[in-house]
Design goal:
Blueprint: H1 8-21, E1 32-38, H2 57-65, E2 67-69, E3 72-73, H3 79-88, H4 92-95, H5 116-122, E4 126-131, E5 150-153, H6 181-186, E6 198-200, E7 203-206, H7 214-232, E8 236-241, H8 258-279, E9 285-291, H9 312-315, H10 328-331, E10 335-338, E11 347-349, E12 353-354, H11 358-365, H12 382-385, E13 395-399, E14 410-415, E15 418-424, E16 439-448, H13 464-485
Parallel strand pairs: 1-8, 1-9, 2-11, 3-12, 4-5, 4-8
Antiparallel strand pairs: 2-10, 5-6, 6-7, 9-10, 13-14, 14-15, 15-16
Helix pairs in contact: 2-8, 7-8
Length: 528
């Protein structure tokens, strides 16, 4: 397929470019990149964002030494689609990843999609991924086959398998006997879910993983990767996808603030990675911290802090307004960028940005070429990072992520200060167990976020303001859908087969490959 002709959507992007969003940036040496992605983190989980939060001194220092982005958004409100968009710069409706992959998934991020790691490796970078993958682990969907020279982590969410010391709020998996099904059923204390695996490249090094030491091990592996890359003389790209703040949460003795303790652990981990990067010489490494989606509200006290983005309209009708939803609490996430000497310190940007922008921005800074024959939803926002501009997206699309409507479809969007919903409701559970009714809105619900950040009261459809903005909303929505329909889109394989489940010991019902906690046993076997 040849390079497509310019669409109105692309013309809009070019208008922004020519209007001053882009300016040339010449680096004498390719910079290093570290992208740290927190899981289920709330916008209010950073003290720099929300004064009530006291557990993030390292992240707050990162904000003080870099730029804080307060209108930054994930590209979906759930795990796999958000990660796929980070690594491709494309929404799920284009890259094919519209919902989460399972432990038995045969597929993953479609192989015809080009990842950020593949582009940067081609440009001479050492590439490493540490932590949660969740973009397919079977065969060629493994991180080592998607552009990463090195991988250390868990192939999906760490609540998708049992462990011996799971933390809050999952049961443990006692060792199950190696007998038949009848014997297993008779053992009420035998948790038969497959144990959670820990990979180093394509080898399972521990199953079940010992979650209590995972943060320390991630920090150690990140430090080793950075040092190896530095010794090689090559620039590096390190993608660290944390287990924090997704349940189960590790914490000290019961009775303590479980969420706060886990937040402090995450903060210390980020601080350690920054310290290692700084040791190479400040100014050589760009560090970008953000989150994959908002808090998982149904986990109650184990869920994060939304800050002011409470989605009051939805809450009044029941259901969550956080993870899985297109309310601000579902996709507005904390974002910090630190690059001494390049990114201004103590700056707060109100530009409308997205996780989608990481791909084209880092590719541009590396002096690499974007993949051909496909359109990106992200922008090269390096002028915003450098403080030359505070102009981001004029329009930002928010795909359905499980709460209402067909997953992946676009039924919510942002136009300047206006938040627009064509569908709201059922699917995302609140702490009280409610989900609320699914509702279609034609004409759409429209909120002015400049004066209603809580999304409490939509504009009156008869008001002068609503009537003035509705034509622009309709045009932007139609152009976006036309552009997607004309694009070279991918389709993910969501089929499953038990043979795809990672297992280091097929003779054990839980795939256990060591006999006691805290003891690792390396094995060359991986079930692919």
């Amino acid at each position: 397929m040849g390079t497509p002709s310019l669409s109105p959507w692309v013309v809009l992007a070019l208008t922004l470019v020519l209007g001053g969003l882009w300016a040339p940036c010449v680096e004498s040496r390719q910079p290093n990149f570290i992208v740290i992605l927190a899981d289920d983190v709330g916008w209010g989980d950073l003290g720099a964002n929300w004064a009530e939060t006291k557990e993030t001194p390292h992240l707050d220092q990162l904000a003080a030494e870099g730029t804080r982005f307060v209108d930054f958004h994930s590209a979906a409100s759930t795990c796999s689609p958000s990660r796929a968009s980070l690594l491709t710069g494309r929404l799920g409706v284009r890259n094919g990843v519209t919902h989460n992959f399972a432990i038995a998934s045969l597929g993953g991020l479609p192989l015809n999609e080009t990842t950020l790691a593949e582009v940067l490796r081609e440009a001479g970078y050492s590439t490493g991924a540490i932590g949660k993958w969740h973009l397919g682990h079977h065969g060629r969907h493994h991180p080592n086959s998607r552009g990463f020279d090195y991988y250390f982590g868990i192939p999906y969410s760490h609540d998708m398998g049992c462990t011996d010391t799971p933390g809050y709020n999952l049961p443990p998996c006692p060792p199950c006997p190696r007998h038949g099904t009848a014997a297993r059923v008779a053992r009420k204390d035998c948790y038969t879910e497959v144990a959670l695996p820990l990979f180093e490249n394509v080898t399972i090094v521990q199953q079940p993983v010992e979650l209590g030491s995972l943060a320390r091990r991630y920090a150690e592996e990140a430090a080793r990767f950075i040092q190896r890359a530095s010794d090689s003389g090559r620039p590096f790209f390190l993608y660290v996808a944390l287990a924090h703040m997704h349940v189960p949460l590790s914490a000290p003795a019961p009775g303590r603030d479980i969420y706060g303790a886990s937040l402090r652990e995450m903060d210390a981990l980020v601080g350690r990675i920054k310290e290692v990067a700084d040791s190479l010489g400040k100014g050589s490494t760009l560090l970008w911290f953000t989150g994959d989606n908002g808090p998982w509200a149904q986990k109650c006290e184990l869920a994060g802090r939304l800050g002011p983005f409470v989605g009051a309209w939805q809450r009044q009708r029941g259901g969550s307004s956080a993870k899985q939803t297109t309310w601000e609490g579902g996709h507005r996430v904390p974002a910090l960028v630190y690059w001494p000497g390049r990114v201004p310190a103590r700056r707060t940007s109100h530009a409308l940005l997205s996780i989608l922008d990481i791909f084209p921005t880092l590719v541009g800074l590396a002096g690499a070429a974007l993949p051909p024959n496909r359109r990106l939803d992200g922008l090269d926002v390096s002028p915003v990072l450098f403080g030359w501009s505070d102009v981001g997206h004029k329009v930002l699309l928010h795909p359905n992520s499980g709460a209402a409507g067909k997953v992946g479809e676009i039924e919510a969007l942002r136009l300047a200060q206006y938040k627009v919903f064509y569908t709201t409701g059922r699917g995302a559970m609140a702490c009280d167990g409610s989900t609320g009714p699914e509702e279609r809105h034609q004409p759409p619900l429209v909120f002015n976020l400049d004066r209603d950040i809580q999304e409490q009261e939509p504009l009156d459809v008869a008001s002068r303001e609503y009537q003035a903005v509705l034509p622009a909303i309709s045009r932007a929505y139609a152009l976006a859908l036309q552009d997607i329909a004309a694009d070279n889109v991918s389709v993910a394989d969501y089929s499953q087969d038990p043979a795809a489940i990672p297992c280091c010991n097929l003779q054990h019902v839980g795939c256990r490959c060591h006999g006691a906690p805290h003891v690792e046993k390396r094995t060359p076997r991986l079930c692919l």
